[in-house]
Amino acid sequence: MKNTNIHEGIILIPDFSGFTEFVFNTKLYTGEYIVRQLLSTLIDMNEQYFEISEIEGDAILFYRYDNNPSYRKISTMLWKMRNAFDQKIKELNKELSMSIDMSLKFIVHYGKFSQYKIGTFKKLYGKTVVEAHQMLKNEFAEQPSYALFSNSFLENSSNSELEINTQKYHLPEGGVIHYFENVN
């Protein structure tokens, strides 16, 4: 059986670090309000570049079919998302007179995947999707605020000369981690 619905593309997963502790230590209505605000901020900063496959708790599964992904475009978007996320945290801290201790990490991966529908839901399927989720559980990152660009993404992207102004760590088995702050 041949599937003509298989495409190459980018998987992007922004994920909140500190989410579990946040949920256990925040009132239900307040927590839901904060998470909704933060997720909406990330979706707005996406500027409809990526499609949304799923939103699960504190993570968004974005995807884009793309035969020639641009490292520069994606890294610029991640900086904008991260800055907007941090700004929204500051606004919510002030508005709600509380301290929200969450940060943002990103997984950027590339490969083949397909999509199928169940009712009104669109689901992504494939090894690439599973690999991206596995990267969220990495043991490489030394701090919570980072972007992990997989080797597959870097090998398939244009202008992947890694020029953005961050600390970078090459992981032969994973890719490259860009930290948004200095590593302590």
From TrEMBL:
Name of the protein in its database record: DUF2652 domain-containing protein
Organism this protein belongs to: Chryseobacterium angstadtii
InterPro entries: Uncharacterised_Rv2561 (IPR020503)
